[in-house]
Each structure stands twice: as C-alpha cells, then as structure tokens.
Amino acid sequence: MKKICIFNQKGGVGKTTTNINLSCGLAMLGYKVLAIDIDPQGNTTSGLGFDKSTLQNSIYDVLTDENVKLNDVIIESQLVNNLFIAPAKMDLAGAEVEMTGAENREIILKNKLKDIESDFDFVFIDCPPSLGILTINALSACDSVIIPIQCEFYALEGVGQLINTINLVKKSLNKDLEVEGVVMTMYDSRTNLCTEVYKEVTKYFGEKVFKTTIPRNIRLAEAPSFGLPINLYDDKCKGAEAYEDLANEFIKRQGGN
Ligand code: ADP
Ligand code: MG
Question: Any idea what the CATH number is for the domain that residue 115 is in?
C-alpha cells in the first residue's frame, strides 16, 4: 500500500482537483484507492459527491478520538468502483487546536493508517493550504509527495519553503519521505510563459516532473459543483484526458506495480 500526499502550501494550485481525479483515474484502472481528505474545506469530499452536512463521522473523529479508527469513517464511492474516501467537514478546522495537546500529535494519522495497512493499493491525502499540524500529520504518514505547481509567473515562489518543510519532516518524523512527482497545472502550451515555467521547474526538480501537464480547462472547474470527477462529468474534455494520462504515467513510474 503506497501512501502519497498531495502537498503545496499555496492554495488554488490544483491539489484537490489532482487528488480527486488521480484517485478516480487509478480506481478506474482497477487499483483499490483510498482518498483521505484532511482539508477542513472538505473539497475532496464534496467533489466526490458526498454531502458534508449529512456526514456522521469524518477524519476529524479519527484525529481527535483515540477510539475512532479509519475504518469507522471510510465510505465507498457510489460513483466509481474501487474508490473509497475518508471524508472531511468544517469541524476539522478545530482539530488543529484540539490536537495541540495530544501525545505524538504529529503521527496520529500515521498510527491510524497501520490498521488498514494492506487494504488498499494507493492512499492519497489531500492537504490543506498551510503548514499546520494537519499537513505535518499527512507528511509524516506518507511514503511520498506529489506537488502540484500552477503554471504562472510566480510558480517557484514558495517552493523553497515547501522543500524545507519536506526536509524538516524527513529529519525528524519520516526519514524515507520522497518527492514522488511534480505536476504542472493550469498549463497552456500555447504561451511562452508556460513553456518557460515548465523549463524552470524542470531545472529545479529534474526527472520528478511529470511529462503530463494539466491544461487550464473550464470543465475541471465545473465538475466539483456537480460532485463528479472529471471523467464522469465530461470524459471527452482536455482535462479528463490529461488526468487519465497522469494516472497512466504515475503507474508506469511505479514500475508496473
Ligand atoms: P487547491 O486544492 O490547491 O486549493 P483546487 O484543486 O481546489 O486547488 O483548484 C482551485 C480552483 O481552480 C478550483 O475552483 C478548481 O475547480 C479550479 N481548477 C483546478 N485545476 C484547474 C484546471 N486545470 N483548469 C481550470 N480550473 C482548475
Ligand atoms: Mg484543496
């Protein structure tokens, strides 16, 4: 079971969109996938068609109550076979404070994941846009990180801090943590800016950058409001094609896994 977190402390770079659509893409290829939402905004949860207001248990309970196991909150997607989700809702915002006093507060998620160690092929964790205790829990719990980077002039701004955070976690909590890959989002191949930014990011991350880029595509922005992953909303659009390619490239990199 490989655990991967989708991490970039910048908001709006495509973390949640990537979490939703890469998870779905891999589930549709036949892998058993768990998508964990640890962002209090719960956008992965609603984007996969779950109504946050009617959810009983969520990842909040897993992180703040030692008696609640991940299995108690995991729900099966009604849309996609092989896809499961550990949902989040607004109450998760309070978890940061509640966890502050807890013993081993940085590795609560890591410890809870031990109960389901062989239940899935892949676990994806959608991080909030911050470097708080929720993100630290995600980074401590996972094997590797996928970093979405938005194709814009300031693309590399904040990347130094992001790498510092990864290195800090490596030093103290998770020495085997690796960068799995970097995915360029909202990419427009017709513009020089995007081509330049891709080159810059490749200079920094080398082979880690996925060959697949995710185009700016209005369908990707629309799909979450219908609670649908992109390939169920419009499987012919550029965004759907791109995330399908990303899932295939990801699997190829796993050496067939
Ligand atoms: P993050 O989780 O990093 O904050 P999101 O995945 O929520 O980022 O994306 C931010 C916003 O941009 C959302 O409204 C989303 O629907 C939209 N979006 C994400 N990726 C794309 C894309 N490739 N093309 C167009 N809109 C996108
Ligand atoms: Mg998000």
Answer: 3.40.50.300
Q: How many domains does the chain fold into? A: 1
Ligand 1 proximity of 12 Cβ (cutoff 6 Å)? yes
Going from the Cα of 14 to the center of ligand 1, the distance in angstroms, rounded, reads 4
Task: Dihedral sign for Cα 68, 72, 74, 79, please.
Answer: negative
Q: Ligand 1 within 6 A of 216 CB?
A: yes
pLDDT, one tens digit per residue, over 59-101 is: 999 999 999 999 999 999 999 999 999 999 999 999 988 998 8
pLDDT (tens digit, 9 = 90+) per residue, 132-191? Answer: 999 999 999 999 999 999 999 888 888 999 999 999 999 999 999 999 999 999 999 889
Residue 11 alpha carbon, nearest atom of ligand 1: 4
The best mutation among 17, 41, 145, 212 to test binding of ligand 1, ranked by most ligand atoms within 8 Å of the C-beta, falls on 17
Residue nearest to atom 19 of ligand 1 (CA): 14
Q: What is the pTM of this model?
A: 0.97
pLDDT of residue 158: 87
User: CB–CB of 14/150 below 8 Å?
Assistant: yes
State which residues form the domain around 138: 2-253
pLDDT of the residue at 155: 86
What ipTM does the predicted assembly reach? 0.99
Cβ 110 under 6 angstroms from ligand 1: no
